Amino acid sequence: AYCLLTSHIEVTATSRHYVDRLFDPDxxxxxxxxxxxxxxxxxxxxxxxxxxxxGAVPRLLYLLQQGSSSSELRAECAVVLGxxxxxxxxxxxxxxxxxxxxxxxxGRCMLTVxxxxxxxxxxxxxxxxxxxxxxxxQEYITQIFxxxxxxxxxxxxxxxxxxxxNIAPLLISPSYKxxxxxxKCFSVLAYENxxxxxxxxxxxxxxxxxxxxxVRMMQRDQPIDMQLxxxxxxxxxxRAGAIRTDDSCIVLKTxxxxxxxxxxxxxxxxxxxxxxxxxxLMEPDVExxxxxxxxxxxxxxxxxxxxxxxxxxxxxxxxxxxxxLKHAHELRQAAFKLYASLGSNDEDIRKKITETExxxxxxxxxxSESSVKVRLAAVRCLHSLSRSVQQLRTSFHDHxxxxxxxxxxxxxxxEVLVMASSTLCNLLLEFSxxxxxxxxxxxxxxxxxxxxxxxPALRVNGIWALMNMAFQADQKVKGEIVRALGxxxxxxxxxxxxxxxxxxxLGLLRNLLSTRPHIDQVMSSHGKQIMQAVTLILEGxxxxxxxxxxxxxxxxIADGNTAKELIMTNDDILQKIKYYMAHSNVKLQLAAxxxxxNLIWNEEDGSQERQDKLRxxxxxxxxxxxxxxxxxxxxxxxxTAMQQYLA
Amino acid sequence: xxxGYFSTTASFRIxxxxxxxxxxxxxxxxxxxxxxxxxxxxxxxxxxxxxERLKRLYPAVNEEETPLPRSxxxxxxxxxxxxxxxxxxxxxxxxxxxxxxxxxxxxTHPIPAACGIYYFEVKIxxxxxxxxxxxxxxxxxxxxxxxxxxxxxxxxxxxxxxHSFCSSGTGQPYGPTFTTGDVIGCCVNLINNTCFYTKNGxxxxxxxxxxxxNLYPTVGLQTPGEIVDANFGQQPFVFDIEDYMSExxxxxxxxxxRFPIGERLGEWQAxxxxxxxxxxxxxxxxxxxxxxxxxxxxxxxxxxxxxxxRQRIQKLVLAGRVGEAIEATQQLYPGLLEHNSNLLFMLxxxxxxxxxxxxxxxxxxxxxxxxxxxxxxxxxPSLSPRHGATNPxxxxxxxxxxxxxxxxxPPNKNKSHNKxxxxxxxxxxxxxxxxxxxxxxxxSTDSTKSQPHSGTSNQExxxxxxxxxxxxxxxxxxSDSEMEIEAEHYTNGVAENSxxxxxxxxxxxxxxLQAEDDSCASRQLCGGNQAATxxxxxxxxxxxxxxxxxxxxxxxxxxxxxMLQDAFSLLxxxxxxxxxxxxxxxxxxxxxxxxxxxxxxxxSQNLPKQPPLMLAVGQATECVQxxxxxxxxxxxxxxxxxxxx
Lengths: 647, 645
Description:
The complex is a heterodimer. Chain A has 42 helices and two strands. In chain A, strands 1-2 form a two-stranded antiparallel ribbon. By secondary structure, chain A is an all-alpha fold. In chain A, helix 15 packs across helix 16, helix 16 (248-261) packs antiparallel against helix 17 (268-282) and helix 17 packs parallel to helix 21 (318-342). In chain A, 71% of the residues lie in helices and 1% in strands. Chain B is an alpha+beta fold. Chain B starts with a helix and ends in a 16-residue tail after the last helix. In chain B, helix 9 packs parallel to helix 18 (558-569), helix 9 runs antiparallel to helix 19 (590-604) and helix 15 packs antiparallel against helix 16. Chains A and B meet through helix 16 of A and strand 12 and helix 4 of B.
């Protein structure tokens, strides 16, 4: 065993002494040795590492498995192994390398080892079979499952091994600990897992539906931990689509329970978990958001999350201060998340949130906090509120939120960038008073760099922001955008695999090509490439929306003075326009007709020639037919166009 | 029971271990039952629902002292308010021009503090023209020409703006607005004197704090067309108020459980040990009491013989052998019953009932069955009195050792039980299985059934005996000059019944009896023995005589008269066990008289007639009632019986 000794770890004589005593011929002395070892390793990671290096683990396992060992000795060995496993990741790895798991499964005591994810597939069926053994095994094994289950794959493995059927009966165990661990296990299994959640809703425990069992566990006289975990289970089942969001067990039970968890009476940890779970529950459902916004003064209650550490705790109690400090970040980010979720759809709720004491100041300072988690949550909250026209015009401008937002965009992890850039898109809407100062801060370069990101979400946000920026912008800004983005990048975006990116790029083009002088200027410099791109898109397999947007670009081009000629001289394009005028989709017909209407408009130079040419190409017949169209808009548009010929 | 438990823990739980209060819970079923047959059945059903729900929600409220609000008051309202639908629907009938036309109505009664947590709901049937509706609370005497919340001692939540009004003309932003179809709830927490509202089952959070006592549920309306319906418990609430109550119950129970006793721990222990010891002695658990005294090193005041004597007498009463119990008492405590004629009369009445039952030794001696086996009644009550709902553990204990719930097994009893394992195979086999105690109870009461005397001739004899007996009974009743009115009352039951029977003749009788025997297979009057029946009738006359004698000596006694009537009326029914007064035959009924006799004996020996444990429980109960009177809402969740398991 000593051959395992490696030089980089300092091995003291005492450590070796402990291991030596395990080999004593007198079983009584071995027992005493193990007990001494137990006392020596508790809380001492270095000692643990030493003993592992010195080969204590195989010997302890040997003693544990020996039939001749007294039960007392075996128990002590198991305790020491458990203690060793409580150390560092490396220690655990060494233990697992010694095949500790199968050995421990034969015994009764195993708990801490299993913090490591189970990699051995044979372990799970064995653990399942041990569930019926005793309340202890039930408690520990369900705890092991909860700890180990970290990925969707883990969930599936446990599911396939019958975890639900085996663990469900434990929910009505007479032991609170067993019930609690079983409940935790279900919360881990159901999280973002449709398969598990769909199965759970149909499970009966003692002739009662599982959801009803969870509802009972949320009763107000139950321990808080149980209420909270049961609420989590129902939340996950609801989000996975297994329970409707208007089901009374969600509206009248889960949601109020989670709101209660946010109250001042609860522990800080519970308030964090409660707020995060509630935010997750109602994120996609405006009705739940509305209900939550009026439940127990939730919006005001959350303001309290920002008051840690409180000034009182600093003076009176150092321990309390430490505790508060530790949870302060978590509390703030949880509150931001919940505000974000609350305000994601309803204008009235957003108003209520921004009117909460110092709310905008809190968000602004949250944007520049050191903790990434808080920054992310703060920007999510800001994003949620930025969907309100009214807030953009008032509180956002008053508090100059664009400043910290711009700063945040300079250097942030992708997830923060996505949220921040998305918020920026809203701040760049033309009615937003923040648009001007943002433009002046040199945001264009930044946005252009976003369009080159590998993340589709960032590319969309980058081009979206540019699109908003170009809307009704002056020539200088438009020129800057084109220059900064570069035609190459612009056309690369027009062939982006993400249709959202494509849509927003077309939108940008359309905004660039508005008002006649701008159209002619852009087309004179980039006309050829643009016409190519347009042709390509109209020929390709794209959605109606994309094609409509493209035809609108053509219509804008047709509105230019010189730009018109790029279409008139391109028979291919003209044929395509003709084709779309006779398309089955009214939107496309409308856009194409608009384009022709611009080309034949009377008061412009050369209109007669264009009219003649298009008549020759058979457009008049088509227009004539369209005047009979059932769609009133299309009919009007066609009539207006026909009048150009009559005049 | 583990003695160690007592010496280490000072807790109320101790009561639950040995307990079983004697003051049996009053029967709750009758309330309102009398009016059930009258009037609109739907309304009566609702009334019944209301009573049930109010009882469940506010068990601590004594409605004789503090009635609960059940409807709006037709007297306490402004003239612009109209009431309908049993005074639950409120509509506005004024002009509704401006706030001067506002009108309110209060409920019939203020909210009693003993509710702990009070809740009512209002459904908006129609918001009318402008929906200026206010829901809330107000004290008596507050101006009704206003919406709730505008004046001192008035509180309201208004539908048009969602604001809360706390004794002020200007509201505070509080909750959402409400309108047609919404259900608004108002919850008053009388423990911390706060109030919150609910909208469609969702709690909106605290609206008012520091509320004064004695507020009335109140609604106010202000424009034409406004209609609201109240629910004071007539229907299930939309909001889960019971869940909210459970939280406060848990809070208060936690407070009691964690109540610090600190330094006085040793003192508590001595007190508790004394309580347990005296309780055991009181009920005559001699062996347990001795063992307990030894383990805790305490002394028992009463001497062993005295305890055993009392134990013996109690066992006799509980076994239904009241005659023997009287004899034993007279022998062991001469003069006791002579000086306590009420008790004697009670005992004799009980003896008569037990004769009907066939359990008293005066009639049992006629039975074919060995008198010895009479002790082995699995169904006879245990010595320790029960309280409230039957406890399965007690029952199972009773089945194994019929007379003792605490595990003190009197050896002779057990022996006699084992001696006759085959008397009734059903009873002996089922008595070992606790789940079928009830079955074995009814079965063994009538072991005679298994005796070979159920031929036709026997039935006829019994039939004749019964007829004769019924005639005798009529005579007993009619000869009582003081009972004319009662005799009339009985005509419906007894007289008519007996006369029709006679007229119907023997043949039909047999049929009837046959049918009865089939339907109620087991029990017969006085164990079905004619001689016994005659003895019973003779005893009945003696009892009647005793009553008359007592009347002469002490004047009329209504209680005695009632007792006697009840006992005698048993004979008026063909199946006394299934008749309106059949309750008397239940062995459980022996417990009251048993404890009365026990207390009388103890008193005569200058010992406390009640064990200190029961005194403590009584005091605690009284304290909780006192809390209700001084308007401490937490009394609702500190009920003594929730600590007695």
